[in-house]
Amino acid sequence: MKYDDASWHYGGECPADLPNEAGATHIAMFLAWCLLNDLGGSLHVEEFPDELERLRNREETPGKWFIRCCDEKFTDEDNSFCLFFYHAKKAPYLNEYTEVFPDVESLYAVPDTWESFDKLAPRISAGFQQWR
Fold first, then answer.
1. Buried b (16+ CB within 10 A) or exposed e, 28-56
2. How far is CA 25 from the centre of its chain?
3. What are 39-93's pLDDT values in tens digits?
4. What is the pTM for the complete model shown?
5. Predicted confidence (pLDDT) per residue in 45-57, tens digit
6. Do 34 and 78 contact (CB within 8 A), yes or no?
7. Which residue, among 7, 15, 27, has the nearest Cα to 91 in the 3D structure?
8. SS3 for 75?
C-alpha cells in the first residue's frame, strides 16, 4: 500500500511557482526520521544499506535522497508507526509539520534542508513516544 507519492502533489495543492520536488519534502522528512531512528523496513535496511548510510551521513538532503532512492513513493514497507502518525485518517503528522513551520505559505514551501529536519524531528519523536 502506498502512503504517499510526491507526484500526487504536483499541479494540485503544490503551488505552481515551486518545483515538483517541493511535493516530496514533507514525505521525505518523515521517512528520513523513521530510517534514522531504526524504524525502516528491510528494503532500506537490508537491500540498500549504502544508500541508508548516505542518509545517516547527511550526504544529501532528505528530499533529494527520497526522490533518488524511493522513486518519490512512501509505502507500507516501512512500519506501523507510519500508519498511526502519517497515514491514518486523523494522523497528526501534517498538523505537527505545519506547526513547526508556521511562517511558510504552505507545507510545500518548507526548505528541503537538514535544518528543517532538525526542527521537525523532535515533534516526530514525541509522536513516536505517544504511539508507544
1. bbbbbbbbbeebbbeebeeebeebbebbe
2. 6
3. 887 777 777 889 999 999 999 999 999 999 888 888 876 567 888 898 877 889 9
4. 0.91
5. 777 889 999 999 9
6. yes
7. 27
8. strand
